[in-house]
Each structure stands twice: as C-alpha cells, then as structure tokens.
Write a structure and sequence with these properties.
alpha/beta, eight-stranded mixed sheet, about 25% strand, globular, binds S-adenosylmethionine
Length: about 280
C-alpha cells in the first residue's frame, strides 16, 4: 500500500478542530498503551511521541516519566497548533512538525518512542528503521496501530459496490513483529484487542471518521465523487450488518513493545517471527 502523504497531512489539517470531540477510541487506546508502561523499568531522559496529534498523551507521558523531556512530533502542523493551544502544554513539551519516517533528530538520542494510532499512516518498515536510528541501544519502543479487521464492515460493504480500495489495508500483528525483528528490535511483545463502536446510521459512522481525519489516502484511489446510486448500494450492504438496531464498526488494535537492539543484534534473529505469541481478546 502506498499512501498519498499530501492527502494524509491535508486530512488531519482539516480535522484538527473536530478531532478531540470525535477521538473517543483514540483516547481509550492511548490510556491502555500508557498503562502498559507500569510493567517496564526504564528511567528515560528523552521521550518522543510520534504522531502526537493534539497532544492527548503528552501530559500523561510527562507524569509517567517525571525526569524526562517529552517531545511531540506530528506531520500535520494544524494538529500541533491545537496541542499548543492547550494551556501550559507548549511550555513543557517541545512540539516538532516532522514526518515520523524522517525525524530531524540525531541518532541514538532518544530513550523511549511512544506512538498511539499513528503508525497506520506510515510505512512500518521505513518508520521502524527510523525509530531504531534515533533510539539509543536498549531504548524502548511502545506503540498501538490498527490491524486488518479494522473497519471490516465498511470494506465489505464497499466491496459489494466496486473493486476500488475504499478502506486502507492494515498490517497484521505477526507481520509487525516480523518487521520489528528485521529492523533490529529485540524481545517484541504484541497483542491484539478489538473494539466495536455502534452507530444509528451509516452516515454517522462516515462522519465520525471524517472528524478524526481518517480519509482514504491510498494512492490510486478513486478521486471523483461517489454517485448517489453507488452510495445507496454501499448503505444497503452495510445495513445487512445491523444488530440490535445499531450498525457496528470494528477496530482491531495491535499493541506492541520492543527494545532497541545494539549493533551486535543486527544479524542475530533472537525471536522467530512465527514464534511471536499473540493473544486475542473480545
Ligand atoms: C489518529 S491521529 C492520533 C493522534 C494521537 N496520537 C492520539 O492518540 O490522539 C494520527 C496522527 O498521526 C499523524 N501522522 C500521520 N502520518 C504521520 C507521519 N508520517 N509522521 C508523523 N505524524 C503523522 C497525523 O497528523 C495525526 O495527528
């Protein structure tokens, strides 16, 4: 999948003012991801939040790592502007407009990279290589991202209309584990959780996605307007999913943690990708 980065930035720029009202799932997942730090022993000097958006996690990261400088990075300056407007936040956390795949940082200077629901907008191989570069050996990478079942109801409903990509394909947990190992991370731990939001109407689900900036940005997508007939066929297909009077929308969330290896780890595969354990919960 190749993403149109200009479109990604433009979508988040447009969504910056509505993001916080609609990002209920994003905050729930951030809280879960932050909670997982209680199981690790690390005393970082520098923490990076990649794809910080409107900065929801920054105060919590500062509270968790009291001695650390916590830096927020995002490719959409409009999202950072909302983060900056949060009282007091800008004074304590530097906010940097930059692409997570090309961080304007020297190598091996970061102790913890945290990223909540932003990696699905990046190429994981490129991003993990870049994170490995800026993390110090022994540094921690903690992330959440979406797995393949995310928005499956919309993907399947659109498939009844045409064969164009309307919903992004998302990377599987085992492939992410494989990429972590190949890019020099060690001891990866990954797990998956599923969340289902429900809506009264199909249009409500689509409006929510728009308000968080989640537009289709796959290169080669159909860029014209969807005709009324096609949209109605999509709605009819989605309606077959209705249960207890509501339309479900699934999010499969992959949580991951891994440690940055040393140079001597580079050619040593310490964990077989197929042996990476996973647990699925409902
Ligand atoms: C769904 S939001 C999540 C924001 C925040 N982490 C949260 O939990 O609310 C995804 C964020 O990733 C940012 N993003 C997308 N692609 C990026 C990239 N290549 N580099 C840095 N940030 C990126 C978007 O601008 C957006 O703010």
């Amino acid at each position: 999948m190749i993403l149109d980065r200009t479109r990604v930035r433009a979508s988040f720029a447009r969504a910056a003012s509505s993001y916080d009202q609609a990002a209920v799932l994003q905050r729930t997942v951030a809280d879960q991801l932050l909670d997982r730090f209680q199981w690790v022993v690390i005393d970082p000097c520098r923490v990076l939040d990649v794809g910080t958006g409107t900065g929801y996690s920054l105060p919590q990261l500062r509270r968790r790592f009291r001695k650390a400088e916590v830096i927020g990075v995002d490719s959409a300056p409009a999202m950072l502007a909302v983060a900056r407007a949060r009282r007091g936040l800008w004074r304590k956390s530097p906010l940097v407009a930059a692409d997570g795949e090309r961080l304007p940082l020297a190598g091996a200077g970061i102790d913890v990279i945290y990223s909540n629901l932003a990696l699905q907008w990046m190429d994981p191989v490129v991003a993990f290589q870049e994170f490995r570069r800026v993390l110090r050996p022994g540094g921690l990478f903690a992330f959440s991202t979406f797995g393949p079942d995310t928005l499956m109801e919309l993907r399947e409903a659109w498939a009844a209309v045409d064969d164009r990509p309307h919903v992004h394909p998302f990377v599987d947990m085992h492939d992410l584990g494989d990429i972590l190992v190949r890019t020099g991370f060690v001891d990866p731990v990954l797990d998956v959780d599923r969340y289902t939001l429900t809506y009264e109407k199909a249009a409500d689900a689509l409006r929510d996605l728009k308000r968080i900036g989640a537009h289709n940005a796959v290169t080669g997508r159909f860029s014209g307007l969807t005709g009324k007939t096609s949209f109605q066929r999509f709605v009819d297909a989605y309606e077959t999913r209705r249960r207890d009077g509501r339309l479900p929308l699934t999010y499969e969330v992959v949580y991951g943690q891994a440690w940055c290896g040393t140079a001597s780890n580079d050619n040593i595969v310490r964990v077989s990708p197929s042996a990476i354990g996973g647990r699925r919960r409902r």
